[in-house]
Every structure is written in C-alpha cells, then in structure tokens.
Amino acid sequence: MTIRANAADDKAVRFRQVPSVSDTALSTVSTATALAITLSALAMTAIVALRYLASSGAFALATRLRHPGLYRGRGSQIRREIGWSLASAAIYGLPAGIVAWGWQAHGWTRIYGDIDAWPLWYLPVSLLLYLLLHDTFFYWTHRLLHRPRWFRLAHAVHHESRPPTAWAAMSFHPAEAVTGAVVVPALVFLIPIHVAVLGLVLAIMTVMGVGNHMGWEMFPRALVHGPAGRWLITATHHQRHHAAYRGNYGLYFRFWDKACGTDIGLGDLPSARLESRA
Fold this sequence. Notes:
The chain is mainly alpha-helical and 278 residues long. It has one domain. Helices cover 68% and strands 1% of the residues. A two-stranded parallel ribbon has the order 1-2. Helix 2 packs antiparallel against helix 3 (75-106), helix 2 crosses helix 8 (195-211) and helix 4 (122-145) packs parallel to helix 8 (195-211). The longest helix is centred in the N-terminal third of the chain and has 46 residues, at 21-66. The radius of gyration is 25 Å and the shape is globular. The model is unreliable at 271-278 (pLDDT under 50).
C-alpha cells in the first residue's frame, strides 16, 4: 500500500509540474505584449526626442539668423535645457507608445483614419476642441505649479532658464513632464479625431511651445497687438510670464487668464531688448 501511495504521489507531483498548454500560451502572449508595448514606447520616445531636437534646432537657427548674439553666453543654460528636455521626451514617449500600440493592435482609441467616418465639418471642430481642452488642462496645472510648494518641487526647473531659449520648450522636471505627457493620450480615448488632425494638434503644440520660449516674436505686430492677439498667446505674452514669475498661465488662448484675472498683459518686444544691449 505504501509503494502504491508513493507512486501516486510522484505521479501527482509530475502532473502539477507540467505546465498546461493554456498557461504556456498565456505566458507567451504576455511576453509578446510587453515586448510590443516596450518597443512602441521606445519608438515614440525617439520620435518625440527627434521632433524636439529638429524643431528647437530650427528655431534656434532662425534666432541666430534674425537676432545674432541673442543666446550669447547661455551655453550652460542651453545644455541644461536640452538635458531636461530629452529626459522629458522619455516621459512623453511612454503614454504615447501605449496609445500607438493600443490603436494599432486593438483599436482602443477614438483615432480614425477613414475621412468619411465623420462629417468633414467635424475636422476643424475636433482640432479646436482638442486645443481648448489641452489649454484648459495646461492653465490649471500650470497655475497649480506656481504654488510655492509645487514650484519648489518641480516647476522651478523650467524657470531656471532666465530668459528661456528655443531649447527650453520641454525643459521640465519629471513630475511636471508627467502632467504634460498624459493629456493628449487621454483625450484620444474620449474624443474622436482623425489621425491627420491629431498630427496637426501635435504640430501646433510643438511650434507654439518652442516659439513662445525662443526670446523673440515670430508673429507680426498687427496680429500680436490686434484683435486676434487679445485672445491668442504668442511669445510676447509668454515672455511676460517668465519675467514676472506669475500670471499668463495659458498655452494657446488667453481666455482662462482673462476670466480668472491672471492676464498681466504683453511683455517687451525682443527687438527692443536686443537694441538696449547694443
């Protein structure tokens, strides 16, 4: 009886040690999924980093051509801005990579590629909707980051650039980078958007982010000081924020600043600052 019992126990142990086909398949799928997400995140990190280097580099070159000497003596500041920005690119790349994988592999997002899926009038509506919601999120998180505790913990990194350059657009502490990295990836799960319009949203975000920090105004004076300029944010408006360390918290539009009494007007024109140095 003892021998039979031992044999039965050995058989039971061997049976438990052999993984089932379903367990093996599940493990294989999990590994493949993790690898796919990792590769997607790495690819998006590289794309964000290259987009930053290309756009900031182009605007920095334009600055050298239009305002020679504007960045003179700021080598260490620019190197710091690039370092923080590349770290931010990795943080931006993670949620972007998850979104890209989920869209391609499972269709989880509301991103669509068929131009006929929604009416044509919805294309500009979705663009404006994304910009308005992004601007709203940015205003309130930016305003929070200027509270003393949060400023010391995170936002002070961005304001170390005095004044900022074209390389400072993504110069964030990791905690601040997280707040900027999640908003657009979250929106694509909620609001339908054509893939081309999404690309336009990212392009506007990049151009305005770099342009508003580069130290001179790229838009004509008629726009900046005209009716449109009373509602749109350009470098002249954002420069005042960096000079005063308060107010002018918006990203694209002045609506929230005006509504909440935090709009402190326009700063000095870069050309005037350049002339005063001469």
